[in-house]
Amino acid sequence: MNITDVRIHLIGNSEATVNGSILKGIASFTVDDALVVNDVKIIEGNRGLFIGMPSKQRENGTFWSVTHPINNETRLNIQGAIIKRYLEIISGDI
Q1: What are 17-74's pLDDT values in tens digits?
Q2: Which stretches of the chain are assigned E, i.e. beta strand?
Q3: Full set of structural domains in the chain with CATH
């Protein structure tokens, strides 16, 4: 699986939170120039940056995953590409 594009929308409000962590941006990524996954959250937690995959809230208040990686290797590949692009954007290295 190759991540062929990553797009980031920065969140300017440092008050935006996800379960007590700071929401830094929203990402979309493309797999093999064929599939786009939208609404991936870029979150700054106590141990640094990480991603939250897209989810939907049910009527009873619980959440379910819309899409998610099947294994940790895939998660790390996606997370690495998104965080790399995020850091390039905030440092001006684009």
Answers
A1: 667 689 999 999 999 999 999 999 999 988 999 999 999 999 999 999 999 999 999 9
A2: 3-10, 17-18, 21-31, 35-45, 48-52, 55-57, 63-65
A3: 3-91 (3.30.1120.40)
Q: State the pairing for strand pair 35-45/48-52.
A: antiparallel
Q: With the C-alpha atoms ordered 27, 43, 13, 59, is the resulting torsion angle positive or negative? A: positive
For the entire predicted model, the pTM comes to 0.87
Task: Say if residues 39 and 25 touch (Cβ distance below 8 Å).
Answer: no
Sequence-ordered list of residues with C-beta below 8 angstroms from that of 82, at least 6 positions apart, any chain: 6, 8, 27, 29, 40, 42, 51
